[in-house]
Design brief:
The protein has 397 residues and is of the alpha/beta class. It is built from 15 helices and eight strands.
Length: 397
């Protein structure tokens, strides 16, 4: 695809600015967390007035009565403020819960709130779009973070259901007159047991009951998935990573990739008695690697590189089939502050300039060299050893 020179110039400037500002460390999760937290405060301020902090404090101690129509925005605003801390940690669970809260907030404003608050609706809708577009950046799924925010979401839902049914108590038959009965009704309804001893009789109570059933199924299903999936993945990864031998990862070579170049490099280093750790996204079926020191995981993840002993390695060789992934591996290694030599393989000549931007110590391009040598041979050009080494390692003369 042909691009105009000024477009390419803008791209180079943006990439240079991106590296200078170290954007991957704080963008987009930091500004999005700030915007989500600000949206929660805006909703609370809109609902409770400019002195909402004092109002919330007194409300928690039972000094104020909160009208039923104000209760959903009150809990949504508080939950958004809490979830903003999870977004700072790039938590996938916090991202999921935030999307659910934003959708609920939009629906609450659209169907319940007055028209003059449509600016807040536009704010939440724009934020919802921004969160959706940046979903790839919220990829942390540690058990601790997932458990924390799953627990927070469950508590917020229980509070919403309990106090909501208590404030709408007159709309039930028999009426709900205390918090214990409200908690009992909420748990029975959210669990979809439904004994039928308490029945909603007004439209408000019926709609509220529907909301806690839907939210209950959604939140508990999401929370269970958020906790169980990372646990299963961690155990599976632990099993795969300890299937082969476990060597002392120090003064060793780290070969990354599931490509012929990576496997051949491992074989040659292994023949020479050099300690080698292989990092692959998926396990390999060949029996030849049964005794190899293998780590299964994302090689651009700093935790995986640390597990492979990147800080004590002699060299890190990024030999994946995707050139962009090789670049990300080199960037991750540099962010760890490793002293090891970094080597990046290039599979496509068009990507050489981009790979150079991440500044690996060595760039090796055997496939690029093969095509160039074949063309030179067929056209009768002279091929010298110095030229071969220069082009293989892609060193500038």
């Amino acid at each position: 695809m042909i691009t105009h020179p000024w477009i390419e110039s803008v791209r180079r400037q943006l990439r240079r600015l991106n590296r200078k500002l170290q954007a991957p460390r704080w963008f987009p999760h930091l500004p999005l967390a700030f915007l989500v937290g600000s949206g929660g405060i805006w909703l609370l301020r809109s609902e409770l007035g400019p002195h909402w902090q004092h109002y919330v404090h007194e409300l928690l101690y039972g000094s104020h009565y909160l009208k039923p129509i104000r209760f959903p925005p009150f809990l949504i605003g508080g939950a958004l403020f809490i979830m903003a801390t999870g977004l700072l940690l790039r938590s996938r669970t916090a991202w999921t819960m935030t999307l659910l809260l934003l959708v609920t907030a939009c629906a609450s404003i659209l169907f319940i709130r007055p028209v003059h608050e449509y600016w807040l609706l536009l704010y939440f809708f724009t934020l919802l779009l921004a969160m959706t577009l940046n979903w790839k950046h919220f990829n942390q799924s540690s058990i601790a973070a997932s458990s924390l925010f799953a627990l927070t979401s469950a508590i917020m839902l229980i509070l919403y259901a309990t106090f909501g049914s208590y404030y709408l108590g007159a709309g039930y038959n028999p009426p709900i007159s205390n918090l214990v009965t409200a908690l009992y009704y909420s748990m029975v309804t959210m669990s979809t047991v439904g004994y039928g001893d308490i029945i909603p009789k007004t439209h408000e109570a019926m709609l509220f009951t529907v909301s806690i059933i839907v939210l209950g199924i959604t939140v508990f299903a999401t929370s269970l998935t958020a906790v169980i999936v990372p646990l299963v993945n961690q155990n599976l990864q632990h099993f795969l990573n300890h299937k082969g031998k476990r060597m002392k990862r120090e003064n060793h070579f780290i070969v990354i990739g599931k490509t012929p170049l990576a496997f051949n490099t491992w074989r040659e280093l292994n023949k020479r008695g050099c300690p080698v750790t292989l990092i692959m996204r998926e396990a390999v079926d060949q029996n030849e690697f049964d005794d190899a020191d293998i780590i299964i995981g994302d090689p651009s993840n700093e935790e995986i590189l640390e597990q492979a002993g990147a800080k004590k390695a002699t060299a890190i060789l990024a030999m994946l089939s995707d050139d962009s992934e090789n670049a990300f591996v080199i960037l991750a290694a540099k962010e760890l502050g490793v002293t090891a030599q970094t080597i990046a393989a290039v599979n496509d000549a068009r990507h050489l300039k981009r790979i150079k931007l991440v500044q690996p110590d060595v760039i090796i391009a055997p496939q690029v060299l093969g095509g160039e040598l074949l063309a030179m041979l067929l056209s009768g050009e002279e091929i010298t050893p110095d030229f071969v080494m220069q082009r293989l390692l892609h060193q500038d003369s």
